[in-house]
Design goal:
The protein has 280 residues and is mainly β. It has one domain (5-279): Outer membrane phospholipase (ompla), Chain C (Beta Barrel). The chain has helices spanning 5-31, 105-109, 234-237, and strands at 36-51, 55-71, 74-85, 93-104, 118-132, 142-152, 157-169, 178-179, 183-194, 199-208, 223-233, 245-255, 269-279. A hairpin with an 8-residue loop joins strand 7 (157-169) and strand 8.
């Protein structure tokens, strides 16, 4: 991959921001007496990404840093993706950061809140942040999320949340930041081991309601984003340590991407990927 000087500067700034946020999370974790922690770097690759108004069959290389941890009253999740597209998407570079904190109300209250298939109840809050330097839209998304969470009683974890989203953007074609209507999202996130095979089924699903008109006065559509993967524990098989090195296959289905209607080219993505992670 070739980077211009300006892109190298952007990557350096982003790397600095990422390291700073990771260090801050580590500090919070220590102050909150973390009960468990997992941090990984990863890479994934696919040739059938899609971008609205650009089209389909875009190739992307994606590098990520992920941190998750549990503390006395809940869990933290932080992820940063660094994405680079091929020439079909103007060789664009993008950074997308996600943070979620889920407060376990059972742990906070000291009461057993389980019922039926539900292990406990929680409240999830967090944010999404992105920047992209493509020649067209050039997204600068900012989003806050808040809502209740059901923590299901399964091997591993399965959390189902109903979140209220406050989202804004300021692409380069408009002079001021535009805020969409408040809108809900139904989210499921899971990580479930498959017996004792060394395999795990992981991923997330977002069903996002329409968010009113976009910054150009066009109506938006509900979107569905499913990202699922099957990962294998290569670390144990290679004697490197349990779950140290993991690899697998990932598939993303994204309908009405970013709220764009189905008539927009590139609004539907069906993207298979390969993925590898190193945990430390």
């Amino acid at each position: 991959m070739h980077f211009t000087s300006s892109k190298r500067i952007n990557i350096l700034r982003l790397a600095t921001l990422t390291c700073t946020m990771t260090a801050a999370l580590a500090g919070v974790q220590q102050a909150g007496a973390a009960e468990w922690s997992d941090t990984s770097i990863g890479y994934r690759y696919g040739t059938r990404f899609a971008e609205p108004y650009v089209g389909n069959d875009i190739t992307k290389n994606i590098f990520n840093l992920t941190h998750s941890s549990g503390y006395k009253y809940g869990t933290n999740f932080f992820n940063v993706d660094l994405l680079e597209s091929n020439s079909k998407d103007s060789n664009a570079q993008e950074a997308y950061i996600t943070y979620r904190n889920t407060l376990d109300l059972g742990k906070v209250s000291g009461k057993n809140l389980s019922f039926g298939p539900v292990r406990s109840l929680g409240v999830t809050a967090g944010f999404d942040w992105n920047t992209k330097n493509d020649t067209g839209y050039a997204s600068k998304k900012r989003m806050l999320v808040l809502g209740p969470t059901l923590m299901m009683d399964v091997p591993g974890f399965l959390n189902i949340s109903l979140l209220l989203l406050q989202e804004s953007n300021q692409p380069k074609s408009i002079n001021s930041r535009y805020t969409y209507d408040l809108h809900p999202m139904l989210n499921a996130a899971w990580g479930i081991p498959i017996a004792s095979t060394g395999l795990a089924f992981e991923g997330y699903m977002n069903y996002i309601a329409a968010k009113g008109k976009n910054e150009f006065g066009r109506g938006t559509a509900p979107e569905l984003n499913i990202d699922a993967m099957v990962m294998y524990d290569l670390g144990t098989a290679l004697g490197l340590g349990k779950k140290t090195l993991r690899a697998g296959l990932e598939y993303q289905y994204w309908r009405n991407k970013f709220g764009n209607r189905s008539t927009v080219p590139g609004s539907l993505a069906k993207t298979p990927m390969v993925r590898v992670e190193y945990h430390f």
